[in-house]
């Protein structure tokens, strides 16, 4: 009987050891599975973050490309427009030399009228393409955003900082300055309502 008892004790010990080993293995498996799940969740979160960043970058690139395309459409004629400004200047100078005289010679008068019509048509074309003339007058306040001061002159009839002479008109394309108006400004007189004078 003793042998039987020893056998039972041994068998119980073996069962307990087996239970302990199985419990230990199950516990390790659970920890391993939990660890694996945590790693996968971390990886998934990282991938989601990377995806959101990539989508945001793609959207920003799309918006930037769209803005650049719009600006190239709006301002693509800048260089060409600047070249045409010289033609407008020459037509304007030609008309200033004849003032508002009428000529008895119909051919000369026809020529002058043709130059006037050409200038008028050129300015209409400018307007269709959003090119607007800046034509300040004597007495207007100086605006450093649209005018370039070429000289200052003592002048008691105009307020200080106001325009006394326009040497050349300026032009704007949409909201960008193509060329500032070249002006002379008054040094003396009362203070002008203009803000800054940059010479």
TrEMBL record:
Per its UniProt record, what SUPFAM superfamilies does this chain match? Coiled-coil domain of nucleotide exchange factor GrpE (SSF58014), Head domain of nucleotide exchange factor GrpE (SSF51064)
Q: Which Pfam families match?
A: GrpE (PF01025)
Q: Which Gene Ontology terms cover its molecular function?
A: adenyl-nucleotide exchange factor activity; protein homodimerization activity; protein-folding chaperone binding; unfolded protein binding
Q: What is its main location?
A: cytoplasm
* A single GO cellular-component term on record: cytoplasm
Q: Which UniProt keywords apply?
A: Chaperone, Cytoplasm, Stress response
List the biased-composition ranges (Polar residues). 10-21
Quote the PROSITE patterns the UniProt record gives.
GRPE
List the InterPro entries: GrpE, GrpE_CC, GrpE_head
Q: Where is the composition biased (Basic and acidic residues)?
A: 27-42
Record-level GO BP terms = protein folding
State where the protein is found: Cytoplasm
**Which segments carry the region annotation Disordered?**
1-42
The record's comment on protein family reads: Belongs to the GrpE family.
Note the subunit structure: Homodimer.
Per its database record, what is this protein's job? Participates actively in the response to hyperosmotic and heat shock by preventing the aggregation of stress-denatured proteins, in association with DnaK and GrpE. It is the nucleotide exchange factor for DnaK and may function as a thermosensor. Unfolded proteins bind initially to DnaJ; upon interaction with the DnaJ-bound protein, DnaK hydrolyzes its bound ATP, resulting in the formation of a stable complex. GrpE releases ADP from DnaK; ATP binding to DnaK triggers the release of the substrate protein, thus completing the reaction cycle.
| Listed name of the protein | Protein GrpE
